[in-house]
Amino acid sequence: MYTLWHHCRAVTMSSGKYNLLSNAALLTHGAVIFWVGEYDELPDALITHRIDLGGRLVTPGLVDCHTHAVFGGNRAAEFEQRLQGVSYAEIAAAGGGIASTVRDTRAASEQLLLKQATQRIQALRQEGVTTLEIKSGYGLDLESERKMLRVIRQLGRELPIAIRSTCLAAHAVPSEYQGRSDDWIDHICNQLLPELYHEGLVDAVDAFCEHLAFSPTQVERVFQVATELGLPVKLHAEQLSLQHGAVLAARFHALSADHLEYLCEPDIAAMAQQGTVAVLLPGAYYFLRETQQPPVDLLRQYGVPMAISSDMNPGTSPMLSLRLVMNMACTLFRMTPEEALAGVTLYAARALGIEDRCGTLEPGKEANFVAWDIEHPAELSYWLGGTLSKHVIFQGEEVYYD
Ligand code: DI6
Ligand code: FE
After folding, report:
1. Which CATH superfamily is domain 62-351 in?
2. Which of 24, 128, 161, 280 could bond to 389 as cystine, CB 3.0-4.6 Å?
3. 284 lines ligand 1 (CB under 6 A)
4. Mean pLDDT of the chain, nearest integer
């Protein structure tokens, strides 16, 4: 009982390369890929359905590995302030920034958060995203972090997209703990994280390591508890300054270190040695009008795998298009379109610790793929906006078509 998807070309992205198949076919068995190759080499199988993909180009389903897609309100007014010269750090210091989203998120019902996140996720789904990570971190008390994580779980149940949930309680110091950041870290370690983990709400743990957030020493305590619970870790590191968070992440065998604009060469070596994925977030770089570029050449030189992601969040990257992120990775960070595609497929899956399940077109992986109405895979990074995708297949089922 196999489904044959044929009359297409395909880029498998195995080992992070296109590996173009010029007359491709895929055999799927339920939710799983059974075989991919040139049509001429199709194995004998009991094919019950044949689907003609009209000559389109098939890629793995896209993976957005770093988002804050659940939040209340938005920060368009801050955007206006910033355009008048007020900096992100100044806004944060005056009680805006993350704190203002925390107020709006605490005030919002689960239902409202669900509805608003669904709309944002629809935009990603329509451009071929089949796997998505979402972080908490705008609740910043036990009950509100639980609310966010429950919404994340519910999105995963309701929408035809795989969702990974990350606890980012160490995102900012909540107002109740102002001036007592160590006490907030204590609370995360002693109660919040273990409790939410035991409720089945957490797949991974993240923190914001930055001068306006948490020090490496504080992050290390959170990582220790995560490790004791058996949870993988990842880190917002070197976004606005060099704190050596990336080397801490490497030491804890983190799945990824993310942002990395200020990353230095010795820390790149540490990441390379531990296999830590570098997640680059050009949307935040662009939206904050940063000028310090992540060290893409050195990451390449050391063989550190590079993922890219939307960082969808209301403050620094109100980004609803992963394809626009691919374009920015090329235009702003000088990545190649092949690296950009690998960055939203194989390496994004690796950054979530689910490379065995998705990220490439290979037997045994989930049957998540997109048939695009394009000639060359570089077009995914080339076109600015628009919906190019025609068929989106999630776990063997067509879930979007235009
Ligand atoms: N880095 C970011 O870019 C976002 N969080 C983080 O740790 C910003 C979140 C926000 O401003 O709401
Ligand atoms: Fe982020």
Report:
1. Metal-dependent hydrolases (3.20.20.140)
2. 128
3. yes
4. 97
pTM above 0.85, yes or no: yes
Which DSSP state fits 361?
-
Residue 314 Cα: closest atom of ligand 1:
12
Q: Which amino acid is residue 26, in one-letter code?
A: L
Q: What is the pLDDT of residues 26-51, one digit of tens each?
A: 999 999 999 999 999 999 999 999 99
Q: 194-218, pLDDT tens digit by residue? A: 999 999 999 999 999 999 899 999 9
The CA distance from 19 to 9, in Å, is: 11
CATH number corresponding to 2-60+361-401: 2.30.40.10
Give the pairing of strands 32-38 and 20-29: antiparallel
CA of 35 to the centre of ligand 1 (A): 41
Best residue for ligand 1 mutational test, from 87, 208, 214 (most atoms within 8 Å of Cβ): 208
Give tens-digit pLDDT for 376-402: 999 999 999 888 878 999 999 999 887
For 220-237, the pLDDT digits (tens) are: 999 999 999 999 999 999
| Dist. CA 278–CA 294, nearest whole Å | 10
CA 262, CA 278: separation in Å to the nearest integer? 12
What residue spans define the domains of the chain?
2-60+361-401, 62-351
